[in-house]
Amino acid sequence: MDKISFEEIPALFGSVGKLFVDKKEELCEMDAKLGDGDLGLTMSKGYDALPGFMKDEAGAAGGDIGKMLMKSGMKMASLVPSTMGFLMSTGVMEGGKALKGVNEMDAKALAAYLKGFAAGIQKRGKCEAGQRTIYDAILPAAEAAEKIAEEGGTLEGTIKAALKAAEEGVEATKSMVPVFGKAAVHAANCVGVADQGAVAGYYKILGLHNYIVGG
Amino acid sequence: MKKIINAPEDYVDEMLKGIYEAHPDKVKCVADDLRCYCRAAKKNGKVAIITGGGTGHLPLFLGYVGDGMIDGCGVGGVFQSPSPEQIYNIAKEVDDGAGVLFLYGNYTGDIMTFDMAADMLEMDDIETKSIVGADDVNSHKDPKTRRGVAGIYFMFKAAGAKADEGGDLEAVLAAAKLAGDNTRTVGFALTPCVIPEVGHANFELAENEMAMGMGIHGEPGVWNGPLKTSKEIAEESMKTLLEDMPVASGEELAILINGLGATSVEELYILSHDVRTILDAKGIKVYKTIVGEYATSMEMAGASISICKLNDELKGYLDHPVDTPFITQK
Predict the structure, then answer these.
(1) pTM for this prediction
(2) Could you give the angle at the alpha carbon of B88 between the alpha carbons of B85 and B92, nearest 5°?
(3) What is the ipTM of this complex?
(4) Residue contact A74–B123, C-beta within 8 A
(5) pLDDT (tens digit per residue) in A67-76
(6) How far away is chain A from the Cα of B108, in angstroms, using its nearest Cα?
(7) Partner of A171 at 20 to 30 A CA spacing, among A18, B57, B259, B323?
(8) Model pLDDT for residues A113-135, shown as the tens digit of each residue
């Protein structure tokens, strides 16, 4: 697969939604140890509904992937109005902003989406790299994707590089000290355990990967 | 739980239907969403002011939508944020080309909601600015992270008056900021409240106990202890307020004595008198005394005391007429 057409974008995100539905229990269990315990619910509910919102917005967006992403990201926020829900939705919206006027997703567009997604997380969450959050999986993924795409890599090569970087990012969170949420209160329990938000970020990339590469 | 309700999950929407039916000339909903609450009539060319927040605080937030105050309000579930899409839809309705000011309480969920709506509106070339009410002295030492409670009334009043006068978005923002910077609040609770869908009290206070500094969602306060007299409550509250924002003898204030939902107006006037006595003794002038329910917390008993240090500009805003379904000032 070299490019993803406008019409295929809902299916691309459908792959992410399907993965989060499969991982719902696992994410909730991870989150219950260090957070609110509803991470899996937020991620599966939001991403499972996203392709439907995209189809609803497809007509008005008229082939513009960016517009479709922005509007459907906002609808997703209304469905999962929680901190993680808002972070994901902002990611989709900012990723969409980066693709305004784009009609098909190639390697460079995918990298631009991931960079926008990461920027959205950073902007909404006011987080920095190294603070043990989803950003620690997403930012390296976006940077790796950008590097490969700029070097002329394929769509598959780009998402593979992003996935590998996200996986390494998750691993790195095991030695990070949390500064946000309940995890910050239970910092001692976090040592050696991957951040659940970063794992969710990895699954987001994995869902995209599975559609592009086949998984 | 003893409440006049039908199904708890219909609490918010059925309340809204009642308000729209009672005040069809003043307010309406847009985007086929009861929770997108707007003024019935647009005022031409005026900066639009939008607020939003959880249900359970009437007249805050939607009660301030009307002439002389604000233009739209996103209505969340009980103690929950409205959605970004609702704020977006309200802004699309009430903007008349002069831009939109978002003015709301300093709560994480609301901040994210309004920021996301601002992002969407930027795509549509609608200019927005945001400011939060953060007047609750006891909610945090750092003024930036304090919660917004009853004192946000003064910000609505100043921003609404400035917008009516034809001020541009910057000027309306500045008016709100001036009011916010000069306003402080402390609150206290005597009883907890019941969220309809929860069905039982969210914390407990014994019959002879009170909580000082309690937030409007039952957030823990500075202390829980034996119930004090009105005089003692006024003394402790005024000490906290004036330590946080010193007011010199001869300076002027407005005071807002706000009931949290289940405290009688009689009691509020007793408290108001005790506050006034303390200020008189310090030589601080009281330009205006406002007593009643301005930001409640369901049916919590208790009250909050807000002070707003005034200059001529703020006095003018305070005197500006207001007409909403919940508040009238001629």
Answers:
(1) 0.88
(2) 140
(3) 0.76
(4) no
(5) 999 999 999 9
(6) 8
(7) A18
(8) 999 999 999 999 999 999 999 99
